[in-house]
């Protein structure tokens, strides 16, 4: 039977996705999708719809929980949901038990997002989705001898777009307009301190923080798209204020996973 893949790229949290689409009834799911697409079309929600022939073969994000000389309770927390087992026999056996427990989870924030395997005391957690959404799945480990590979899964190959607002000998109101929304702070103390204040202001802006996150260092405020992929390259960036310059008119460097390879029957 011929197949077509449909993918939504968005900046919703895992919990929001589960709430929106974690329904068993086909009619309800279809209605939810229709409402979501209407919201994308109207601009109420932000995202990107991708459609292609065949079976999509993107790259899945992964992460690990390594157990070394473990003891007591060993826990992996995925998307805020803790799954625990008691260390027994060996690190290898405990890793296998933890992977089995993750795969047996009834939480939609786990079972709908990841699968787990184990080898030699290392549990590998793999996103079900073959796209950048896997990089947003959170991961932590707790218990004696348990270590997570990072705060989120990684490796989907998609890249987030970014840009900079550089403050050099600034004065007065400094900042920029991001995606059409102006965010400024009053220059104070130094360029470095003012860039840090600007990053804080961007992250606190309830319009802008739906699209981007900001960091700063040495007078440079770096603005990074929340949604990985080329969609972030559409976010406009304009500097404002004395001594402020933007890296470009838009964020740049956003890269989608390749959508050119398909499994065909």
Summarize the structure.
The protein is of the alpha+beta class. The chain has five helices and 14 strands. It folds into three domains: 53 residues, no CATH class; 87 residues, no CATH class; 85 residues, no CATH class.
**Count of runs of 4 or more consecutive helical residues:** 5
Please indicate the percent range of residues in DSSP E strands (runs of 2 or more). Answer: 35-45%
Shape: globular
Low-confidence parts? 258-265
Q: How far do the termini sit from each other?
A: 8 Å
- Describe the sheet with the most strands: 5 strands, antiparallel
Rg value: 22 Å
Question: What's the helical proportion of residues?
Answer: 10-25%
Q: Quick one: how many beta strands?
A: 14
Give the structural class.
alpha+beta
Mean pLDDT: 86
In total, the number of domains comes to 3
The sequence of SSEs as H and E is: EHHEEEEHHEEEEEHEEEE
Question: Can you describe what's shown?
Answer:
This protein is an alpha+beta fold. The protein has five helices and 14 strands. The protein has helices spanning 14-21, 26-42, 91-103, 108-111, 191-204, and strands spanning 4-10, 47-53, 55-56, 62-78, 81-86, 114-119, 122-127, 139-148, 162-178, 181-186, 212-217, 220-225, 237-246, 262-263. Strands 4, 5, 6, 7 and 8 form a five-stranded antiparallel sheet that branches. Strands 9, 10, 11, 12 and 13 form a five-stranded antiparallel sheet that branches. It has a two-stranded antiparallel ribbon with strand order 1-2. The radius of gyration is 22 Å and the shape is globular.
């Amino acid at each position: 039977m011929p197949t077509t893949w449909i993918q939504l790229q968005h900046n919703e949290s895992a919990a929001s996705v589960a709430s929106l689409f974690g329904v068993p009834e086909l009619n309800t799911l279809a209605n939810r999708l229709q409402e979501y697409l209407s919201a994308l079309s109207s601009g109420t929600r932000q995202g990107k719809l991708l459609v292609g022939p065949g079976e999509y073969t993107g790259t899945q994000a992964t992460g690990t929980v390594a157990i070394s000389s473990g003891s007591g309770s060993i826990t992996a927390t995925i998307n805020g949901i803790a799954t625990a087992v008691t260390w027994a026999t060996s690190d290898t056996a405990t890793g296998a038990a933890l992977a089995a427990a993750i795969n047996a989870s009834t939480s939609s924030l786990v079972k709908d997002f990841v699968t787990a395997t184990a080898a030699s005391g290392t549990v590998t957690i793999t996103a079900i989705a073959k796209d950048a959404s896997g990089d947003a799945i959170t991961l932590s480990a707790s218990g004696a001898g348990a270590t997570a590979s990072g705060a989120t899964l990684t490796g989907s190959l998609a890249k987030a777009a970014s840009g900079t607002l550089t403050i050099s000998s600034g004065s007065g109101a400094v900042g920029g307009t991001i995606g059409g929304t102006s965010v400024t702070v009053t220059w104070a103390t130094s360029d470095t301190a003012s860039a840090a204040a600007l990053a804080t202001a961007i992250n606190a802006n309830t319009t802008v923080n739906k699209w981007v996150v900001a960091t700063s260092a040495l007078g440079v405020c770096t603005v990074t798209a929340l949604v990985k992929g080329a969609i972030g390259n559409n976010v406009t960036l304009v500097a404002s204020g004395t001594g402020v310059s933007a890296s470009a008119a838009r964020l740049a460097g956003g890269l989608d996973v390749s959508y050119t390879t398909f499994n065909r029957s």
